[in-house]
Amino acid sequence: MVAGPAALAAAGAPAAAVARNLVISSANGLRACARAMEILKSGGDTLDAVVAGVNINEEDPEDTSVGYGGLPNEDGVVELDASVMHGPTRRAGAVASLRNIKTPSKVAKAVMEQTDHVMLVGEGALRFARAMGFPEYDLLTEKARIAWLTWKQSLKDPQGHNNWTDGLDAPREKKLGLRRMFPGVDDRTLAWAWQVALHPPTGTINCLALNARGEMSGVTTTSGLAWKIAGRVGDSPLIGAGVYVDQDVGGAGSTGRGEENIRIAGAHTIIENMRHGMEPREACLDALQRVARNFDNDVSRLAQFDLNFYALRKDGRYAGASLWSGPLRNGKVSPRQFVVNDGGDSRLEPCVYLLERKSA
Ligand code: GLY
């Protein structure tokens, strides 16, 4: 079950690395890492760099796992979570269940810089963001609304009934299917909506940076689990789970099913593993093993979710690690890669993995 030497060898980390400008992120961070690297090259702060990087995803309506355009909760309301840690000052900030603000990572940074608190949630977080001058938006895009309605359509009682589809009185030949319900929507969007309805995703972006002075920071930001109960908070805004940075050791973060990461305090666990001498890839795999242990290594239950860790050590060694290899259980292309930028173009490198999935 546990990955052997071949999987370990797939990890991306050059030998004899030293502190240098370096940014890593989850697989959706090609542009984020490039922007963060530009800021590092111009001498900017590592936290400014990673936050500016993930702001690209947060403001992009096509990234349906983060910020504006993120998939909503079960009520159709987008609620965002984010956290930041700044290595040099050893400070942290976070927000959870934040509505109406496109860039929760910036609000988390403002919590860190402008308050004596570490975390604000819900209505209080929104009032704080307003006070800080953040503009408000309706974060539910048309694409996300279609996906949310598709999800509601997919829920049926044991008799196959659903209040959100046309009822018993509907003319038999005219019953609404997805295609007729959304006549102007292309097939690709409808197929995607059906996928995310059946397999609620937990996308997220984590981004970690190191500069040539050896300073480090990290950020994680997400719209969380699609169709969640209002107020559900995942791992992303929890310092020690979704992100952790110890200036003496390195940084770590996570994407995927937050509930399982919270139960092992993944990012902090990885930092402690590295503090005690593990390579980043070993540190991440050990964290994943703790997740597997929480399920008694029962692969049929573990197969029902995905979880990924990212680690960047202070000496410039790094890794991405996934619970599973191979295709996702919904048949989509595997995201089991992570992004690295060491001064040129951002590139994807393979994650090491704990368990091998042979088919979707
Ligand atoms: N990792 C994102 C979440 O579970 O909300």
Describe the protein:
This protein has 360 residues and is of the alpha+beta class. It has helices spanning 5-9, 30-41, 46-59, 104-114, 122-131, 142-154, 178-181, 187-198, 258-262, 266-275, 280-294, 299-302; strands at residues 22-26, 80-86, 91-98, 119-121, 205-210, 216-222, 243-246, 250-256, 307-313, 318-324, 337-341, 347-350, 352-355. The strands form two sheets. Strands 4-3-2-6-5-1-11-12 form an eight-stranded mixed sheet. Strands 7-8-9-10-13 form a five-stranded mixed sheet. A hairpin with a 5-residue loop joins β11 (337-341) and β12. α2 packs antiparallel against α3 (46-59), α6 crosses α8 (187-198) and α10 packs across α11. The longest helix is centred in the C-terminal third of the chain and has 15 residues, at 280-294. It is globular. The two termini are 17 Å apart. Bound molecules: glycine. The site of glycine has 12 residues, from β8.
What characteristics describe this protein?
single chain; 360 residues; alpha+beta; eight-stranded mixed β-sheet; five-stranded mixed β-sheet; 12 helices; 13 strands; globular; disordered N terminus; binds glycine
Q: Percent range for helical residues?
A: 25-40%
Mean pLDDT: 90
Side by side, the strands of the main sheet go 4-3-2-6-5-1-11-12
The biggest beta sheet reads:
8 strands, mixed
Proportion of residues in β-strands? 15-25%
Principal-axis shape: globular
Spell out the helices and strands N to C: HEHHEEHEHHHHEEEEHHHHEEEEE
Query: Can you count the beta strands?
Result: 13
